[in-house]
Amino acid sequence: NSKYREKNLALIQKVPTPITPIKIDKENRQINLAYFEKKSTVDYMGVVQSIPVCFDAKECSQDTFSLQNIHEHQIDFMKEFEGQGGISFILIYYKHKDVYYYLTLEKLLSYYQRSLSGGRKSFLFDEVDSNYIITCKNSMYIHYLELLNLDICSRT
């Protein structure tokens, strides 16, 4: 995101998770214990070439990604965000494969709907569209803008 900003391609900010500190180490200026004030929405929000975007970043250590990692309020927020003309997606890091993946909201919703209909509560790496695997390009390690463009183009 820093490189995208430097190159004037996008302005993406990490959304802070609201917390209430309980135990503070004043000497080291460190929070030792806290609780979440409310449910957060997504990890990142911003704009890419005048297109509003929001996305969450997740990590997976196996070929099965549990939909429990994405909360209903996050899905609702992403749907509302797209209802306002934005683009929502999930970036998943498959740690054991060292692979980053761009999950479109449309595909997420299909997996989610399947789970609500009594199907799998997860999806397999073998189910994902290989066109949305993120590759390193132009010294950008997680270069997701090309896949954002692919996502946008697939909607028209």
Keywords:
156 residues, six-stranded mixed beta sheet, globular, two-stranded antiparallel sheet, alpha+beta
Task: Please sum up the structure shown.
The protein has helices at residues 2-6, 72-83, 105-116, 145-154, and strands at residues 10-14, 19-25, 30-36, 44-48, 51-60, 64-66, 87-94, 99-104, 122-124, 133-134.
Write up this protein.
With 156 residues, the chain is an alpha+beta fold. It has four helices and ten strands, in the order αββββββαββαββα. It has a six-stranded mixed sheet. Strands 2-3 form a two-stranded antiparallel ribbon. Strands 6-9 form a two-stranded antiparallel ribbon. The model has no long low-confidence stretch (mean pLDDT 89).
Order of helices and strands: HEEEEEEHEEHEEH
Poorly predicted residue ranges: none
Structural class: alpha+beta
Radius of gyration: 17 Å
Major sheet description: 6 strands, mixed
What's the total helix number?
4
DSSP strand tally: 10
Q: What best-fitting shape do the alpha-carbon axes yield? A: globular
Q: Span from first to last CA?
A: 26 Å
Strand content: 35-45%
Mind sketching the topology for me?
Elements: H1 2-6, E1 10-14, E2 19-25, E3 30-36, E4 44-48, E5 51-60, E6 64-66, H2 72-83, E7 87-94, E8 99-104, H3 105-116, E9 122-124, E10 133-134, H4 145-154
Parallel strand pairs: 5-7
Antiparallel strand pairs: 1-4, 2-3, 4-5, 6-9, 7-8, 8-10
